[in-house]
User: What shape does this take?
Amino acid sequence: MFEIYYNIFKNNSKNNELPNLSPFIINVNAFFNNISSFAKRFKEAIENAAPVILSMDTLTKLGESQFVYWNYFDSEFMKLISFSDNVNKTLREIHEKSKYKEMDKTMELCYNHILISPYKKIFSQSENAYRQKYYDLSLVGFLSIIDGLLSDVSCSAKLTSIFKRGECILKKLRKEKLSSFRNEELAYVTLMFTFKSTMESLSTNVPFTEKEPKNLNRHWIMHGRSRRRKTKLDCLKLVNFIYGIILINDFSKTSMM
Assistant: This one.
């Protein structure tokens, strides 16, 4: 959806005049562009940094699998993802081994966050659907929350501070060894890159006359056109995306430098 809005915006803007778009569309377009810009420059900087600490291959694979991640990589996790021929299967095995405890923890963090306050009812219903294995219903609920949160966060004037912070990290990436970075800074880099990649594929405009995308696609799901089998891992991906929005909002209000 967001990519569609961006193309409308780009193709119809002339002489600094905006097309007749809602504030939501314009804000999401700006949010998407900022995320994309920083993720691209993070990638360029990271590729020149020490791969022992942060693997670009791991970041890329997580992003392509729509798995938003916000921690620095330990060596075991990095190897599992980097050498995997099927990242979704590997992620599923990792979380099945822990009985999806990380997802339970992330859902609790989301539910108790102030940003979720207007969406608590639908969040609870989506979580209940997930626990009863009604994954299709759960995904629709989580996607509607994502739509609302992106609008809420994009309208925040404080959001710009996270991108200023990003500029500071970029400068540091170019000058220092990645081993000198604090965990919070590495988490920021990982979050921005995987969030950007997930947002792109989730919102990709694929006409209904074509084959359904392999990845989750907001347009296909919310318009009732999706026929692919939904899984527990799919729900985890959207919960992670929701928490990614929350983290971006929180990062914009705190100092890491």
User: Anything to note?
Assistant: Residues 1-25, 50-54 have pLDDT under 50 and may be disordered. The chain has one domain: 41-251. The longest helix spans residues 23-46. The radius of gyration is 18 Å.
